Amino acid sequence: MPNLNLNLNPRPSQHRTPRPPHRFAAIDLGASSGRVMVAEAGPDTLTLQEAHRFPNRPVRTAGTLHWDVLSLYAGILDGLRAAGSSSGSATPLTSIGVDGWAVDYGLLDADGALLGNPVHYRDSRTEGIAAKAWTTLPPTDLYATTGIQYAPFNTLYQLIAAQESAQLASAKHLLLIPDLLTYWLTGELGTELTNASTTQLVDPGTGDWSHEVATLLGVDLGLFPPLRLPGSPAGHLLPQVLDDTGLTAPTPVTTVASHDTASAVAAVPATTDNFAYICTGTWSLAGLELPAPIRTEESREANFTNELGIDGTVRYLRNIMGLWLLQECQRTWETTGPTTTNTTTGPAKGTGTGTLEALLREAARSPALRSLVDAADPAFLPPGNMPRRIAQACEATGQPAPRTPAETTRCILDSLALAHRRAIEDAQRLADRTVDVIHIVGGGARNMLLCQLTADACGLPVVAGPAEAAALGNVLVQARAQGLLRDRHEMRTLLARTQQLTRYEPTRDTASRAAWHEASRRVPAA
């Protein structure tokens, strides 16, 4: 199972006069943490360093799970202060961009004040809402228009769930999370398109709102500020923000691909067009970059989504539960210190799991493909005692229940690799495309066991990295807006030349192929 570090691309271009690199700040918000990254970028330069990282801890109040968005904003200000002082103050920031997760939003009143903390997509308020919507607009028609896969937390269903709320009745504007934070930094309202496309209210063929869907389901599109494209100006830092961060005026803010997955896909270091990608982190988003959406009934039944990327591309992908499964297990183990799990009584007290690295080493020694779950099953969406739920799911399908943290971890990683295999195979079939390499970007690119298992499951080489793909995609869109890069090809060529990548070759023997084929047969998809 060899892997090696790659330096894939040719020497820097000799055709352009060298220019000093510009400094950019990328505000990149994830489900468990946020970070402000500082990059130097130019035609032949791309470096990235972390200025500040801060936790993203949801809070449950009065039975509703919220994002602590004010804490996130405070972390951003701290990060911009650190970014301004890093590498000396002689080189000011050329631009700032904000990306984050999709579907969630904040509501503003007529004075621009926030009407309560945004609700978390894992909150239960949307239970049963999709079925209610489908009585008015059948799922086949909804998919044929928007191309967005069913997920209970889609913005559309959140807005239907909130239709009787006092907050929505009082709202003047609705801002998706990155747009909300951009508004607080600049005072300028806008709705970035790649993130808007996840709401299930956009037609991916036209790149505009679907007024028909909104009207039928009672959504007021007037709440959304005008759409804007990645690379367009988003304003300048407000005087108060300059005071709080120590940055100097004028500091522009650039609209980037504000859905973090769109930024991550923009940072796939592909050297050919025949690639698939897996953006790994809390979620695994596995699929293809296409020139146009696929909205067939077969695609809907396979639960693929058509989200927009930069330059009019379509991110044709399937959502998989991702490393959330392992993160939730770790939270349980940290609380209870388990060494074994009983499906009835739950975790037993023990000595804990140690570091993630040690846990992964133990998992690598555990029996392969012994127990598997469907990693795309929405049953794993809510938080709470993930080890017990995984064990119960294994028993329900007649498999041995994993009892130790190492066995549970191996079950999760084998199951994720199997889900990656299914998604990549289905995407190729539905799009009538063939790929010869899979790029894994995001935090999961650091998980060597997951990368090797994915290569084995898919029977294709995996190129892992960069881990900070969303931040790099954020930076590259800013750099292109400054004229430092011409197109996606130059962006990806620069990434492949400057970032450390690792290649994993699949185990190609007959026994390995047969084992993964049997595993796919044994665990039906939800």
Keywords:
Nucleotidyltransferase, domain 5; disordered N terminus; 4-stranded mixed sheet; 526 residues; 19 helices; 3 domains; 24 strands; 8-stranded mixed sheet; alpha+beta
Q: Quick one: overall form? A: globular
Calculate the mean pLDDT score and round it: 92
- How large is the radius of gyration? 23 Å
CATH top level of the largest domain is Alpha Beta
Low-confidence stretches: 1-15, 340-352
Describe the main β-sheet briefly: 8 strands, mixed
Distance between the termini: 31 Å
Number of strands: 24
Major sheet: arrangement of strands: 1-24-23-22-16-17-19-18
Strand percent estimate: 15-25%
CATH architecture heading of the largest domain: 2-Layer Sandwich
Can you offer a commentary on this structure?
This protein has an 8-stranded mixed sheet with strand order 1-24-23-22-16-17-19-18, with helices on both faces. The protein has a 4-stranded mixed sheet with strand order 4-3-2-7, sandwiched between helices. The chain has a two-stranded antiparallel sheet with strand order 5-6. The protein folds into 3 domains: 13-101 and 103-254, ATPase, nucleotide binding domain (Nucleotidyltransferase, domain 5), CATH 3.30.420; 260-321 and 434-521, Nucleotidyltransferase, domain 5, CATH 3.30.420; 324-416, Nucleotidyltransferase, domain 5 (2-Layer Sandwich), CATH 3.30.420.40. A hairpin with a 4-residue loop joins strand 11 and strand 12. With 526 residues, the protein is of the alpha+beta class. Helices cover 36% and strands 22% of the residues. Helix 12 (324-336) packs antiparallel against helix 15, helix 13 crosses helix 15 and helix 15 (405-431) packs across helix 16 (448-458). It has 19 helices and 24 strands.
